[in-house]
Specification:
alpha+beta, 4 strands, globular
C-alpha cells in the first residue's frame, strides 16, 4: 500500500481537482469556509500560495486527495470519497512529516467530525483544546 501513495506538489493543473475535492467535502468535516467559494475565488486562493507546502495525494497514480502544511504547522487533509480515508491519510501524513520535519504538528478538526478525531487519536495525536465562536 505505502509505495502506491505519493505526494506531488500542487500546480496550476490541479486547480479543478482541488475545487472538486472541496465541493464534495463532507459538511461535518468542513471548518475552512462557511460557503463554497466560486471557482475564480478558489483559483485566486490557491495561486496566493497560502500554505508552507500543499500536495496532491496520488494513489496508484490517480489523484485521491490533498494535504497541506500551513504556515503555523497545521496539517489539513482531504481524501476523495472513492478512497479509504484511514489507509491513505495515515501514509499521506507520514510522508508530509518526512518532507517537512517539525517539532510538532497541529490538526484543526470540526467538533462534528468524529471520524477524523478518532483517526488522529489512534495515530499518535492528542487533543489540545476546544475553540468556541460567537457570531454577531
Amino acid at each position: 500500500m505505502n509505495s502506491n501513495i505519493k505526494l506531488k506538489q500542487v500546480t496550476k493543473t490541479d486547480m479543478l481537482f482541488l475545487y472538486d475535492l472541496l465541493k464534495n467535502k463532507d459538511p461535518n468535516s468542513n471548518i475552512s469556509h462557511k460557503k463554497m467559494p466560486s471557482y475564480d475565488e478558489h483559483i485566486k486562493f490557491v495561486s496566493s500560495k497560502p500554505y508552507t507546502n500543499w500536495y496532491v495525494i496520488e494513489y496508484d497514480e490517480k489523484n485521491a486527495g490533498a494535504i497541506y502544511l500551513s504556515k503555523l504547522d497545521e496539517i489539513g487533509i482531504s481524501i476523495g470519497s472513492d478512497y479509504e480515508y484511514e489507509q491513505i491519510a495515515k501514509v499521506a501524513i507520514k510522508l508530509l512529516m518526512e518532507l517537512n520535519p517539525r517539532k510538532r504538528y497541529l490538526v484543526n478538526v470540526s467538533p462534528k467530525d468524529i471520524r477524523t478525531q478518532e483517526f488522529l487519536l489512534k495515530n499518535g495525536f492528542s487533543g489540545l483544546e476546544y475553540v468556541y465562536e460567537m457570531k454577531k
